[in-house]
Design goal:
Elements: E1 7-11, H1 14-17, H2 30-33, H3 53-63, E2 67-71, H4 74-77, H5 86-101, E3 105-111, H6 117-123, H7 129-146, E4 152-157, H8 159-164, H9 166-169, H10 176-204, E5 209-215, E6 219-221, H11 226-249, H12 254-263, H13 273-279, E7 285-288, E8 293-296, E9 317-318, H14 336-350, E10 354-358, H15 375-393, E11 398-401, E12 423-426, E13 436-439, H16 441-452
Parallel strand pairs: 1-2, 1-11, 2-3, 3-4, 4-5, 5-7, 6-8, 7-10, 10-11
Antiparallel strand pairs: 8-9, 12-13
C-alpha cells in the first residue's frame, strides 16, 4: 500500500481517554453519571489525555501515524448542552493544531457514546426530536470552528450500541415493550440527526468528507440449515444493514421494517423527513471490527432475555463458531478473514470508500519493568492489516487503517483490566497514579510496519 494514498492511523474516544471531569467548562455527560461496577474505573480521569495532550501527540508523531481518529466530547464543546463552551473549543483547537503541526490528519467523530445528561433530564434525550435539533446545532458549531482545518469527519460511532446501551443514552424505561419501542425511536432520531448534519456539513465544509462509523457485523450461520441461514440474514439486517441502509439510502431494509411494524416498534416519522433522508448521502463508511458473530435460529421456548436488546426477538440468537480461537476478552473468537469478508460485502452493497476506524485486541497486559511484551497484539494486528492489503490489491477503496487504540483507555465495563493500547497507561482501576505513558512492543512493531509499508 502506497504511503501517499493510504492513512496509517490510531484511534481513541473522548470519554474513554480524555478525563478532565468538570475542568475547562465541561458539562455532565451520560458517561459521567452511569453506574460502573465497584472497583472499576470510571471516565472522570480515564487516561488523563486532558493533561497529557502534547505528550500524546508527540507519541503519535514518533509512531509515524498520519491519521488520528478521535472524538469530540459533546459536553466539552457545549457545556450544559445548550451553550457553546469557549474553553472546550480552545482545547480541541489545540489538539487539531498540534496534530497538523506534526503531520497528522485529524479525524474527529461527532458522537461517540456520550451526550449531555441535561438532555436526558429535559426531554428524554434521543426519544425526542428536540435531540435532533440540538445535535445539528452542536455539529454546526464544530464545523464552523474546526472545518477550516479538519477535512475528515465521522458522524455517529456504532449506532447499534449508541441506541441500545441504556446507560449511555438514558433509556431507563422499565416496561420491556416500551423500552424496545423507545430504542428504535432513538435510533431513528440518530439517523435523522446524521442526515441533517450532513446537509449542514455540505454548506460549511465544502471540501470535506463525512461518514458514519459502523460496528461492522460479519454474521455466520451456525449450520447450513435453512433456518440458520435465514437467522444470519435477519441478524445482518438488525445489527448492521438497518443503520447503513439508512445512512446511505435513507431507508430501512424491508424485512426489518415489517418486523418492527408487526411488533408495534416502528418509529414515528414525519412526512418532511423523507427528502432529508434520501438526499444527504455520506462520502465514506468507517469500519469498526474486532471479531465476527455466529448465530442460529431461536428454538421454541428458549430464553434470550439476558442478551443485548438488539438480540431480543424471535429471529435469531447467539450460536457458537468452533473454528475460531477464543480468548478471555475476545469470547467470539479471533477472525482476521472476517475483516475482508465484511468489508467486501459492505462495498458491494454501498459502493463507498472505506476506512478501518477501529480494530484491536483486548488483553490484560502486564508491565514488567519498563516493558509490555504484547506479541499477541502484534500477531492480531498483522493478520488484520494483511486483510486490508488484500482488499487494496483487489481494488477495493480502503484509504486507511486505525488500530484501537493509540493508548490504554477506560473500557466501558472492565475499566483498565481490559487493555487495547499500543501505549501502556500506568494506572489501575483504583489507583490513578500518574498515568505515565510507556510504549509497548506493539508500538515499536507498528512504527516499523508503517515505515516498511509491507
Amino acid at each position: 500500500m502506497e504511503k501517499k494514498s493510504f492513512y496509517w492511523g490510531a484511534s481513541t474516544s473522548a470519554f474513554q481517554v480524555e478525563g478532565g471531569y468538570g475542568e475547562g467548562g465541561k458539562g455532565v455527560a451520560t458517561t459521567d453519571v452511569r453506574k460502573v461496577p465497584a472497583g472499576v474505573a470510571d471516565s472522570k480521569v480515564a487516561s488523563d489525555q486532558y493533561h497529557h495532550l502534547k505528550e500524546d501527540v508527540l507519541l503519535m508523531k514518533e509512531l509515524g501515524i498520519t491519521l488520528y481518529r478521535f472524538s469530540f466530547n459533546w459536553t466539552r464543546i457545549m457545556g450544559n448542552g445548550y451553550e457553546e463552551n469557549p474553553a472546550g473549543i480552545a482545547f480541541y483547537n489545540q489538539l487539531i493544531d498540534l496534530c497538523l503541526e506534526n503531520g497528522i490528519t485529524p479525524f474527529p467523530t461527532l458522537y461517540h457514546f456520550e451526550m449531555p445528561q441535561r438532555f436526558v433530564e429535559d426531554f428524554a434525550g434521543w426519544q425526542s426530536r428536540k435531540c435532533v435539533e440540538q445535535f445539528v446545532k452542536y455539529a454546526e458549531i464544530c464545523f464552523r470552528h474546526f472545518g477550516d482545518r479538519v477535512k475528515y469527519w465521522g458522524t455517529i460511532n456504532e449506532q447499534l450500541i449508541a441506541s441500545a446501551a441504556t446507560d449511555l443514552n438514558g433509556n431507563h424505561e422499565t416496561n420491556p415493550e416500551l423500552k424496545m419501542k423507545h430504542m428504535y425511536q432513538m435510533s431513528y432520531h440518530m439517523s435523522l440527526a446524521e442526515k441533517k448534519t450532513i446537509e449542514v456539513f455540505r454548506k460549511i465544509v465544502k471540501d470535506g468528507k463525512i461518514g458514519p462509523i459502523c460496528s461492522m457485523q460479519v454474521v455466520y450461520p451456525e449450520t447450513p440449515a435453512p433456518n440458520d441461514i435465514l437467522a444470519a440474514r435477519n441478524a445482518q439486517d438488525f445489527l448492521q444493514n438497518c443503520f447503513l441502509d439508512m445512512s446511505v439510502f435513507g431507508r430501512y431494509p424491508t424485512s426489518y421494517s415489517n418486523y418492527l411494524k408487526n411488533k408495534g416498534w416502528y418509529p414515528e416519522i414525519e412526512e418532511e423527513d423523507a427528502a432529508v433522508l434520501e438526499n444527504n448521502r455520506p462520502d465514506f463508511i468507517g469500519i469498526n471490527y474486532y471479531c465476527s458473530t455466529c448465530v442460529r435460529a431461536l428454538t421454541d421456548g428458549e430464553d434470550n432475555s439476558k442478551l443485548p436488546p438488539f438480540y431480543r426477538n424471535e429471529l435469531f440468537t447467539l450460536g457458537n463458531n468452533p473454528h475460531l480461537t477464543k480468548t478471555q476478552w475476545m469470547e467470539f473468537g479471533i477472525d482476521p478473514e472476517g475483516l475482508y469478508i465484511g468489508m467486501r460485502d459492505i462495498y458491494e452493497r454501498y459502493g463507498l470508500p472505506m476506512v478501518v476506524t477501529e480494530n484491536g485486541l483486548a488483553y490484560s497486559d502486564v508491565l514488567e519493568g519498563e516493558t509490555v511484551s504484547d506479541h499477541y497484539r502484534i500477531d492480531y494486528l498483522e493478520q488484520h492489516i494483511k486483510q486490508c492489503e488484500r482488499l487494496v490489491e483487489e481494488g477495493y477503496p480502503v484509504f486507511g487503517y486505525c488500530p484501537w487504540s493509540l493508548l490504554d483507555l477506560v473500557s466501558s465495563h472492565q475499566g483498565f483490566k481490559k487493555r487495547y493500547g499500543l501505549v501502556y497507561v500506568d494506572r489501575t482501576d483504583e489507583d490513578v497514579k500518574d498515568c505515565r505513558r510507556i510504549p509497548k512492543e506493539s508500538y515499536f512493531w507498528y512504527k516499523n510496519r508503517i515505515q516498511s509499508n509491507k
